[in-house]
Specification:
The protein is mostly helical. The chain is built from five helices and no strands.
């Protein structure tokens, strides 16, 4: 991401002739970093992002041997026919139910 910020900073400096006004590349980079940090903090407030973050953090805590759901690699090889493997909206619903049942924040 730092490389992207430097590319954008150089573009902004050239396009706006900002460097002629006394600002330098470092100031442009720092301004872009502040803008990026603010944008990311706003993204983290979006309800869907908050919900997905909570689901992911809960799922990461689960291990295969003592929790009601887990992740499996190579499912075609390692999961038996008839197993319940929720995904997409069903997975969200299962995790949401577990979040409520466990009072997970």
């Amino acid at each position: 991401m730092t490389e992207d910020i430097l590319i954008v900073a150089d573009f902004v400096l050239r396009a706006t002739h900002w460097s002629e006004g006394g600002a330098d590349r470092h100031e442009a980079v720092e301004a872009l970093k502040r803008i990026n940090a603010h944008a990311m903090s706003e993204v983290l407030k979006v309800p869907a992002v908050v919900e997905n973050d909570r689901r992911y953090r809960l799922l990461r805590q689960f291990s295969w041997h003592d929790h009601p759901i887990c992740c499996v690699t190579e499912p075609r090889k390692n999961v038996a026919l008839g197993s319940d493997c929720p995904s997409l909206m069903r997975l969200d619903a299962v995790l949401d139910d577990l979040i409520i049942a466990r009072g997970f924040e």
